[in-house]
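Students often ask why we bother predicting the structure of a whole assembly rather than each chain alone. The short answer is interfaces. A chain on its own may look different once its partners are present, and contacts between molecules only exist in the joint model. In this exercise we take two input lines together and write out one structure for the complete complex. Read the inputs first and try to guess which parts will touch.
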Amino acid sequence: MSTEAGRIDARADDRRAILPTGDAIVRYTARQRTNHWLVAIAFVLAALSGLAMFHPGLFWLSDLFGGGPWTRLLHPFLGLAMFIAFAFLAVLLHADNRMTPGDWRWLRQWRDVVSNHEERLPEVGRYNAGQKLVFLVIVLALPVLLVTGLIIWRQYFASYFPIPLIRLAVLVHAACAFALITTIIVHVYAGIWIKGSVRAMTRGTVTAGWAWKHHRAWFREVTHAARSRPEPD
Amino acid sequence: MALQSLDIVRRSATTLPSPQVRAGATGQVAKLIDTTKCIGCKACQVACMEWNDLRDQIGNNRGSYDNPPDLSEQSWTVMRFAEYDNPNGNLEWLIRKDGCMHCEDPGCLKACPAPGAIVQYANGIVDFQEENCIGCGYCVAGCPFNIPRISRRDHKAYKCTLCSDRVAVGLEPACIKSCPTGALVFGTKEDMQLHAADRIEDLKSRGFEHAGLYDPAGVGGTHVMYVLHHLDQPELYSGLPQNPQISRTVRLWKGISKPIALAMLGFAALTGFFHYIRVGANETTDGDEAAAQSARKQPPSPPRPGPRA
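Now the answer. The structure tokens for the assembled complex follow.
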């Protein structure tokens, strides 16, 4: 990263920092974007290799990893990588992902959400209730996937556990993976649906109009902070 | 490798029928292990090693005759010695040749995710095809008898093949050939049941009123059967399960959950697609940008009552 802006990005302690780049508002710093995409890459690879071992109709996915044994070998390491990468991301993002009373109202009005009637919804902060639920599912699923995954990891750990526990672990592992993959399908679709979101996670910025439309409370917060930024203490 | 002379009726992780025009008209086979005739000489273990070219590590004496102490990728059959103080105050030495039971409904095959790594032939033999094995160990979870072992050297699963290679060419399994007391016999399953019935009659006439044939129905019957003095207490024989069956957890995991989960993932993706087709993208308009601009210029008004207020 050689540009001045990049260095500011990387060091920005204030996650709501606004850079003077015209109307653009910084939504994700370079560090956050890197972290997100590390999680995403690990997730895609872990999900594809896991699905190959889940359903015979998807076993062909194992060819992507160099065959069945390679799939079996790589899958747990990919899962581990996802867990570790997400642990860092969770630290960065958890504060903005707490449910508020407005979030429950937002969820009750899901019909307005899916019909693009955001003007009828309560003002949304940095994340809306749907995004917070995505975060919550991942936060809940990954530790369970980790523990059950270790129990069924034949090469290193499975021999230390009784067979009935392994059976239970493998079922819970599949159930959590299903919940996670479904959630990520929703997450990916939301990125396709809400134009401008992909830009936020690839280039780091959103337009002021995007922030105003989708995350108005956050918009007020950051524009107010930008106008009357206090001296760092 | 599947033998051409043996037809496959079931193949792991395979959704379409396997080649099976030959219906196994010569009948299904079974090995009968008569525990009441077994003297624990371990000739069968040696024969298994020889025929299958297996050499387990030399172990240590652990205070019992069990040697090696457990099944392994190098030991596909082991004698298990149990000492039972019967209610009459006598000691009974219950010796059981342990190994794959070749279930009619094999839990290992049900659990296996690798196409063709586990097959069941028309004659009933359940066989591991190691070149298709990916080493995940799901067969270990699937088996109701704790039989499959994963090699730490090549990460493949191994177990008794019932000498499928010998049986395919009309020979009996190596262990059968070696047994000096006739405790091991091999033939069609029907013949073995008849043979067992004679033995059980004899045992009952000699006071073993609970003698019987262990051919557990919970796994659809097995192609390795035991004549037991105490069919009512199979656990006496080093933990032979009373009513083995594929665990409910495994059936749930490998049964209904697979198609349902896949269908729901597809449904989720399709829902998104058609939402995009019907409702369409949510785009930020010039009006939004203008509104944002004017909101920026205004002095900070008292925050509107919102979720974050």
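Check your guess against this: The radius of gyration of chain B is 29 Å.
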